[in-house]
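Sequence in, structure out.
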Amino acid sequence: ALWNNVKMISWVNDVAAGKIDAKLFVNSLTGVQFCALPENEFYARAQAQLGDEEGMVEIAKTLYLGMWTLIVDAKTRKRRPDGSIITPKQEEEERKRTEEKRVERARVWAEREKHL
């Protein structure tokens, strides 16, 4: 959603495999604006370029579903405060480090309690 117009055009061109004019399809929209488009607008924009051609529906559907796949993915991924994505491997490593620290603190407290 935070993509600029150039990135949106590039994404549309990649997803549509060059079957439509991505610059015309995206127009001057940014990623946030593009994500706010209703589904019927995708079909209207594809139809404006391709008419009632059979592939028009498939291209519009592919773009719409692709956009929502990115939105859902972005919302469900775990991220650091700086916005970078935390991979499952990194998450597991962090969990292990946290567990090791917890075990060490428990050991230190157990040692302290012996002297009380």
